[in-house]
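Appendix B: complex inputs.
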Amino acid sequence: MAMRKVAVVGAGMTRFVRRALETGKELSYEASKMALDYCDLTLDEVDCVVHGTAPDSFDGVHMKGEYLSDGSGAWRKPYTRCYVGGGTGVFAPIHGWYHVASGLFDICLVVCEEKMSSCQPHPQGAFLTIFDHTTERPLKPNLLWIFAMEMNRYMHTYGLKKEDIALVSVKNKRNAADHPCSLLGDANITLQDVLNSEVLAWPVQRLDVSPVTDGAVALVLAAEHVARRICDKPIWIEGVGWNLDTAYWTNRDLCYPRYVEKAARMAYEMAGITEPRKQIHIAEPYDPFDYKELHHLEGLMLFDRGKAPEATALGITQRNGDLPVCPSGGLLGVGNPIAAAGLMKVAELFWQLRGEAGARQVPGQPRRGVAQAWGDLMQVGTVAVLGV
Amino acid sequence: MAILNKPDKVHQAIAWHGDIPITNRYTAGVAGERFFREVKENGKFMGTRCPECDLIYVPATMFCERCFAELDEWVQVENQGQVVTYTILYWDLDDQPLAVPLVLALVQLDGSDGGLVHYLGETDPEDVYIGMEVEAVLKDPAEREGSILDIRHFRPIQV
Amino acid sequence: MTVKIDKFPGVYLHESDFEQGRVLYNTWDPQAQYAWDAGIAIGRYLSELKQGHLVGVRCNQCRRTVVPPRAFCEWCFRPMDDWVNLPDTGTVNTFSLCYVTWDMQYLTEPQIPAVIDIDGTRPSVGIMHLLGDVDPKKVHIGMRVQAVWKPEEERTGSILDIRHFKPV
Ligand SMILES: [Zn+2]
Ligand SMILES: [Zn+2]
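Resulting structure:
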């Protein structure tokens, strides 16, 4: 199968805020325009547009993809919205990638948007539909339940303490203090702050969770011959993967995300990665909750099962550690506008690998990174490997 | 034997009832703030003009969807325009007959390339036609809230 | 980016901006009311719950017995082979002590949702339910529990026909 090389050549994002004045269209426009300006492209030169956004009910707009199309630069262009729940943010560039890799288009604009503040009294009203309507929702569940129970199972299986996990939140919120778009960046947050935050659904406490957020992120993808012409340092999409586990979440092994492993194996094989721990220099795993970063690092095979907490405690995942993890500040720090948050991770790799991340720059001229998101009914893994 | 081959009797079919308990709150947005405040405070309709595409967007938008320019040229358009198309409604959303039929129209405001969807009033539905000249009837300033309902309806212009 | 871009768009509003009318907005209640068909497998599951029975389904090819019931095996993609009566006992696979409702109202006494691996399933799989009649501090993974059923006349054919699970 002959596939063309595809590069990221531009990125843009809005600030991540708790409630935005801008409409979803306006947020999409701001991010898209910034991404195009970054690589000096006009909308005319864009061949197709890919949009990623989470459930319609968050923005309160049915067929949200169509509603957001003008702000995403889709006027009279081939346009599709893709959707795999929380995994959408990393899936959207994959969707864009096969548009370009296939030879169908040369330049693809990828846009992800979320305006969760539209959903009142709380986006949980929409998140509730994750649970089965007949066998689970009558129990009046709360989205936190599923996370709390997965986290508890993970802690139990590997004998972990809250402290071991809360360190992730501290790291990411501190990293986010250097991100100009962050909602919850805090350079001075301590482990005690996290451990003393209110208990929502034990073992999940307030500061273990990422916030409800509005925001948008956009990337420009280009085929090799275009990328080399318009970009001084294209960042190549070297591998992509995605995978889905059973929709019966109570039938699943809750302490290991096998679907992430499968997605990662697909992406690594495409990227020619045989030893991920040596060949990957930055990781941006999905961290809506602090334990999820650990879970996903293990699924990405960057650490042995149950060993990601120890690596965190040793500082290996710090920005200046051996394997910087979420140097952006992640969802816990920058914020979690679902699909936009996932795409922010890919944008972070773009900036990091180009050496343009400013105060967040990982030292040592990293050459390859992996971004990953997770979602749907808590069982999809989406993975993209980017390299210089 | 597979369980699909022996379904329970149809009269035992069960449905579970529920809802998605949310209310949506939409901000007017950057351009919407200014557009609706002009209606509320000054009774004026403002559009944004794209000089590149020579288009005036109504309702105003902060960007041109065609060339992606950020729009900052605000121009006043007329409070009147033409019926581009319309429909006559005889049933409400709950599928109940309406005592008085409603006329819903797309009105392109004079001086703009855009239009508003709104009700037509002060007219007999049978007299409505495409191309009809209509004008906006605004609520009293004290009643206006910065919403599309600050326009009561459009009505035919008496010649 | 931080290198090239000095100002990022995005205007942060506070809840008070809405309350005090500093920002224009409108609201909409979608009134999204649904009647979800239980279907073949869950329909039978609910009917059996009304009788006070917990049932699962078996796939002979994959040699597994699972709950909640499903009409087809998602592993081998064949119809499930048979219904299996399961005991109403199991083991806590995981749990949470939850102090907030879905709309973030606070609870003084925690709800205790759990995944309960049901005895008789192969490989062991669970359902989600609540734990009750138990001191929250004493709940632990691996705890043996049993269903507490509503009296027969109060059952409606619902997962709520089991009030909760309690320690054996
Ligand atoms: Zn234009
Ligand atoms: Zn099977």
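Chain B has one domain: 29-156.
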